[in-house]
Amino acid sequence: MNFVRAVKLVLTLNCAQSARLVSDGYDRKLSRSERIALRAHLLVCTACRKLRRQLELVHLAAQADSAPGGRLSPQQRARIAERIEGSQSGGPRSD
Ligand SMILES: [Zn+2]
């Protein structure tokens, strides 16, 4: 990706694209410009920071639940659900 395209990505990344990059970050290594754009967006967007925290919790829960002998207890499930619900106050912006 050339410099102009990288700068454009940083300046134009919207919440939907940010959410996609947060999710993609669990499946693949993001490019340098994607990481920079995402970091810049997360600095200014509270909704996407909350979404990222929620996805982190879901990712951690999925890892713990799928580990050998690593089933989550009902208390752990309740704590995770509580934290996800507690971090929900408005979703990501659509712009
Ligand atoms: Zn956002």
Bound molecules: zinc ion
Shape: elongated
Unreliable segments (pLDDT under 50, ≥5 consecutive)? none
Count up the domains. 1
Distance linking N and C termini: 24 Å
Helix content range: over 70%
Question: Biggest sheet: strands, sense, closure?
Answer: none
**Secondary structure: number of strands:** 0
Mean pLDDT across all amino acids: 83
What class do helices, strands and sheet pairing give? Answer: mainly alpha
Number of helices: 5
User: Beta-strand level of the residues, as a percent range?
Assistant: under 5%
H/E element order:
HHHHH
Please tell me about this protein's structure.
The protein is elongated. The two termini are 24 Å apart. It is an all-alpha fold. It has one domain. The protein contains five helices and no strands. Zinc ion binds at residues 15, 18, 41, 45, 47-48, 92-93. The site of zinc ion has 8 residues, from helix 2 and helix 4.
Helices, strands, pairings?
Blueprint: H1 3-12, H2 15-24, H3 32-44, H4 46-66, H5 74-86
Helix pairs in contact: 1-3, 2-3, 2-4, 4-5
Bound molecules: zinc ion.
Brief summary of the model shown:
The protein is mainly α.
Keywords for this entry:
95 residues, mainly alpha, 5 helices, binds zinc ion
